[in-house]
């Protein structure tokens, strides 16, 4: 089982101080910690096994020196929504344009006209950029919490919330990652099986009315593009590849730990989730036949069930990569002021930012929204960065950056070549 050390939060009189932890597989700039208060009497002895990407302590009343975490304060609307009439002004990528349109349809979303999406200067995907000068402290993005993927979405799902609630209650290792990954995997498999849902992510009104609440966001994630859940990550390596390339390396034990954790999650979830997906498809078929607006979905023989099981298993692997590389871990402080629990959350659009050990943005968390601000003056043309984790051996060594986030900061050489040459980064 993959166990990370407990999160230690420094004592502070400021209720806004929080520590942020990113999921351990992909610790890019997506996992943050927030602190919020709510009533709870149970004290947790340890945090999630697979932690979020970023670990940082931030006090929201100041401009912080670290850049990955964020704290949660009381409700606030810093900026009313900017209308985005043409999302192509923000990005030329159709997938991200649809995401921007969906986010902008919410009245409390703010996307500054100075923010654009382009291929990252680091390669391997997209990133956020300043297309004009952004002064220190200026608001860049404001994303309503209800558009984020949270534990509330998972635990209140009428079809499977009880399953995930049981996992949470058991406090099995990495239960937080299992909640987020297991749930978005189910949502994506359902969307893939229904062409109308995939088509509707192009239509903001239809997406808002879709029973797949986060469909435009889920469709924007790189692991769903092309209909495949496969990614370039150790979770998709064959066992022979793991033994041949990682055997004897510093990364070997961590890679096995991660793979075993995900395999255990699939075994725990597959039966019930396959049944839920089949039931959902049958209900969709009946609905389409009654209103004649859709072609009926083909469903329900042994071959279909086997196909769904394989799809869901692969989707869980992909979802773990997404959760570990793009999710934020927030600290939730309960009303007694001493009980702190870590919760993972996916933040649409914010999670597109790449990692840097010297980030130029910072996060603030409130009950109703997440804010992204400039932590220093940002010049026109600069890429926007978060800090997933501090690049220190005692925080996260290079080989764990690879096993958890899928890359090593500053390393351009193919990882396979480094492993074959027995690089000091791994051996």
Automatic annotation (TrEMBL):
InterPro entries in the cross-refs: SET_dom (IPR001214), SET_dom_sf (IPR046341), SETD3_SETD6_MTase (IPR050600)
Assigned keywords, A-Z: Membrane, Transmembrane, Transmembrane helix
CDD domains tied to this protein: SET_LSMT (cd10527)
SUPFAM superfamilies in UniProt: SET domain
Domain SET span(s) in chain numbering: 113-389
Protein name: SET domain-containing protein
PANTHER family: SET DOMAIN-CONTAINING PROTEIN (PTHR13271:SF137), UNCHARACTERIZED PUTATIVE METHYLTRANSFERASE (PTHR13271)
Highest taxon above the source species: Eukaryota
Chain ranges passing through the membrane: 6-29
